[in-house]
Design a protein that fits this description.
380 residues, 14 helices, single chain, hpI Integrase, Chain A, four-stranded antiparallel sheet, globular, three-stranded antiparallel sheet, DNA polymerase, domain 1, alpha+beta
Length: 380
């Protein structure tokens, strides 16, 4: 005989059936739902999941749930748990602009590859790049992956979907002499230390703009990277799990930071008002408009830094490259000079060494020659 059921009003029921299995049951929106499990703990977990999904609105009309309704719930309740704020905003924009106009009224359970092919074809016909199609697909795939885990669908139609080829943007790295010319051209400028640290540290620009003086240890010659400044000027976690790191700086970078700190102290004394965020790189008195609502000492915008970088390239007589290419240049120079890839990967803050290898394999041209020479020495 089945064991006595444990009931709590409005919270469902868990009991052990004659077969020995455990059953979780709840009545939601007038419909009885149940799950059969091997253990009591599994049944209790299944019941909790039913109730959580009901709160999210996923079980009220599961048979009629549309893609639009699910994406709304997913972007509001599920995605924020694991996505960074800036990433979440970009996902929500893609959902609103590209996914909902085409897929909103389709039942989630009836979504198929034909719908996706039609969606991607329509994006291409609007002149959108293959890379944009890939981003749209990535967002939908992430959402459907969660729907599959929650058993709202029986298969993820995004898996194995053929997409238009999207070649990666080619990096344009500066060589050592060009990097030296860049630093020389920045001497005495407002951003001199920023360019120096960017090249010697190989950081992401968001990481650099989030640095505080308290992150710098001049005695040890190290700097801690613990956060990131987003394009919306908010501070958040670094891009990857290994983004929180401590790296050693060479003496030229430390010297530039000492000079920069002294200049910034003069700026603070000259300022009528200063936003004290302990930022290493921030807005200053130079060129600051009296009508501006942003006080000196505030975070710099990436747009402002990018504009300054373009002017610096012209002054140095260098080819036009992206600001992010300075990071690529630093990492490429490290690898081409024989720095172990594990060390370069750690300094870069990549989540995996394989990421560094995928991006910068071209920076190690001597590796194949060294392998050939080693075999020749052994077998010749």
């Amino acid at each position: 005989m089945a064991s006595e059921r444990r009931r709590t009003k409005g919270s469902g029921t868990v009991w052990q059936a004659d077969s020995g299995n455990w059953v979780a049951r709840a009545t939601i929106a007038g419909r009885r739902r149940s799950a059969t499990c091997g253990t009591k703990r599994e049944a209790e977990a299944a019941l909790r999941k039913m109730l959580v999904d009901a709160d999210r609105g996923l079980l009220v009309r599961e048979d009629k749930l549309t893609v639009g309704e699910y994406l709304e719930v997913w972007s509001r309740d599920i995605a924020p748990v694991r996505l960074r704020v800036e990433t979440l905003k970009s996902y929500q924009l893609i959902i609103r602009v590209h996914l909902l106009p085409v897929l909103a009224n389709i039942k989630l359970s009836q979504l198929n590859r034909a719908h996706l092919r039609s969606l991607y074809a329509s994006l291409g016909s609007k002149g959108l790049k293959p890379s944009t199609v890939h981003r749209v697909h990535a967002v939908l795939s992430s959402a459907l992956g969660d729907a599959l885990k929650d058993e709202l669908i029986v298969r993820d139609v995004c898996r194995g979907m053929d997409l238009p080829s999207a070649p990666k943007p080619e990096m344009q790295c500066l060589d050592a002499s060009q990097c030296k010319a860049l630093i020389a051209a920045s001497k005495g400028t407002f951003y001199e230390a920023l360019w120096t640290l960017l090249l010697y540290g190989g950081m992401r620009i968001g990481e650099l703009l989030a640095l505080r003086w308290s992150d710098l240890d001049l005695n040890r010659g190290t700097i801690r990277i613990t956060r990131n400044l987003t394009r919306s000027k908010s501070f958040g976690e670094p891009k990857t799990s290994r983004g929180r790191r401590t790296i050693t700086l060479p003496s030229p970078a430390l010297d530039a930071l000492r000079v920069h700190k002294a200049r910034q102290a003069e700026q603070r004394l000259a300022a009528v008002d200063w936003t004290d965020l302990d930022l290493m790189f921030c807005t200053g008195v130079e060129g600051h408009s009296k009508t501006s609502t942003t006080a000196p000492g505030s975070p710099l915008t990436q747009r402002c830094v990018q504009d300054s970088f373009k002017r610096l390239l012209v002054r140095a007589g260098l080819p036009r490259v992206r600001l992010h290419d300075l990071r690529h240049s630093a990492i490429s120079l490290m690898l081409s000079s024989g720095v172990p890839i594990t060390t370069a990967s750690q300094r870069a803050g990549h989540s995996r060494v394989s990421t560094t290898l995928d991006i910068y394999a071209h920076s190690m041209p001597s590796a194949d020659r060294e392998a050939a020479n080693a075999l020749a020495a052994l077998l010749g």
